Amino acid sequence: MTPLESETVLMNSRSRAPLVRGLVGLLVVITVGTSLPAAPPTITSLAPRAVRPGESVNVTLRGAGLNAAPRLWTSSACSVELAADVKDNGTKANEVTFRVTAPANEPVAIHGLRVSTAGGVSAPVLFAVDDLPSVAQQAGNITRDKAQLLTLPVGVDGQLAALALNYYKFQVTAGQRLSVEVLSRRLGSPLDPMIRLLDANGRELEYSDDVSGLRSDSRLHHVFQQAGQYYVEVRDISYKGGGNHFYRLRVGDFPCVSTTYPMGAKRGTTAELTFAG
């Protein structure tokens, strides 16, 4: 390169320097001044997991990104609104509570819930409309002598820790019929439940693991020959557990239907259905 050519390159570099610095400054201003969009909300848990037809209940959802003008969608006919009796409701990123009201004629079923915010829409979680009254699991019911006392009929929202068993006790009269079932896989839980019905001495009367048509959930029906106190034991078949291993235990005199035949009917027509269970 000749001395003249070297001088030309140097002058060109100097003349471009202010332009390059200006572009860098502009890039910095644009980057700093532009905010990232809010992330879509996520739901990691909710409680309770059911509402009774004709009643209202506060349902608390926990997760992330739940504070950007949250609204609740449900596939049921339930009406929903932000719970007005919860302090700072709708302002916390990790928790929001909605008032859910089920119509009196809402049938028992499992429905979807999704939260929408300015950041997007959450993945769906499952929720039940249940005609049984709800109670929460009491801590420490991991041995038979610490079993939680139930007033029947009832639905219990519970959770299993790894290697743990949960116990519930109740009183029956002679000749009383009871159905016992666990909703877990049907509500989106990884829990693979097993239930055992025990007498007052801990002797097994019946047990249930996987029931056909219930997606590995458990269910049994029993007629009690003697009055007294009895127990239900709930566990994961592989003794797995953790925060997401939730379940809903239902105990009462209700039909145990596993399937119907036929599986469907044409809209606007009348069909005869046969139930099995």
Keywords:
277 residues, disordered N terminus, Immunoglobulin-like, Jelly Rolls, five-stranded mixed beta sheet, 2 domains
Written account of the structure:
There is one protein chain. The chain is 11% helix and 40% strand. By secondary structure, the chain is mainly beta. The protein has two domains: 88 residues, Immunoglobulin-like (Sandwich); 126 residues, Sandwich (Jelly Rolls), CATH 2.60.120. Strands 2, 4, 7, 8 and 9 form a five-stranded mixed beta sheet that branches. A five-stranded mixed beta sheet has the order 10-12-19-14-17, with no helix packed on it. Strands 11-13-18-15-16 form a five-stranded mixed beta sheet, with no helix packed on it. The chain is globular and about 60 Å long. 27% of the residues are buried.
CATH topology of the largest domain: Jelly Rolls
Kindly report the average pLDDT value: 89
CATH class of the largest domain: Mainly Beta
Any idea how many domains? 2
Q: Report strand %.
A: 35-45%
In helices, the fraction of residues equals 10-25%
